[in-house]
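Example protein was shown:

_____
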Amino acid sequence: MDNLHEIFSSLPNKITISKPSAKENKYKKIVIMKTENGYQIEKFTQKQAFHENVTADEAESFCKSVTGSDFLQLNAWDGEYEHIMLISRKGRVSYKKKKSDLAHTAQKHNREKNYILPEGTVILPLVDMGIFTKEGKVVHSMYDKFKQINRFIEIVDDEIRNADFKSLNIIDFGCGKSYLTFILYYYFTEIRKIDVNMTGLDLKADVIDECNAAARKYGYKNLHFELGDINGYKTDKQVDMVITLHACDTATDYALYNAINWNTKMIFSVPCCQHELNGQIHSEKLSLLTKYGIIRERTAALMTDAIRANLLEACGYRTQLLEFVDLSHTPKNILIRAVKHNISKSAKDKAVAEAESIINEFNLDPTLYRLLKIRNGG
């Protein structure tokens, strides 16, 4: 399509591809953002988002391959103009461009000024992490971490920005040194202006003492830390959000189980150290997935999170598995985002059936499944 070549000649900062041509299309929307070395393509299914970094030529070829066949609309912004392509179901292409209302300028092509945590603002936890200078500028060698933190905040913000929350009670299980806990507190109170009460929970007394001291230093009066175990933790407050980052192995399951029991509105979980199913997984028909150590480990980890996601859906949560490369640079790159939703009984039953199919085929006994069966009386 000649119009696409014209669009890419203007070096667009952002492209959205929308209006699927058929309901059964795998992807519902595609967003393409300019990066320092090319473009990042983000493809959205109903529940997941997939990312791919490509060159400008590859991005143009990709747009040509899906526009008009899989999608019927493309919008692009180059800083001065918005380009609009519409394709009829008979294949007729209409194209126009108009002065852009969006602040996509050439200087913003790397999205620096579009970050939720803006550079140039002194955010004390980021200063103490060594990511910001005392003047609020990003330390050049820490730019990747700055982007990773913003990515996490974006995932949370997707659920917050269109809601009308006046206050939130939040628990962070396995908070560790709690850098993200402090930054989340800043995001909620300073950016979204929400009255939050946050509790961080960890097993290490020295970590808890350090975190409480830091909260006092920052003046975060409604952020406090407690010594305790995820398994069996009790609270008399309504818990609106549960965060669990790097809770090892089945600790994630206990955190999710508590969140379900509390009827928590939102759950954000980045699991790690998923050993449980790796020690159980066995299948005669699909033994190839368990034959090689590294394949067995990865298969078990993926099954662990897939089962967790389905069980959350069965408990009334709209659940997504999102790509998230965390600060510890582990191979684990899945974030579970679950939001309380009106899930039909048929969808819940299907979610359970899908989970049980995997459980039975590979002779698994996942902790979250077992805990939920106990809650429901077996």
About this structure: The two ends are 59 Å apart (CA to CA). The first strand starts at residue 14 and ends at 20. The chain has a mean pLDDT of 87. The longest helix spans residues 293-314.
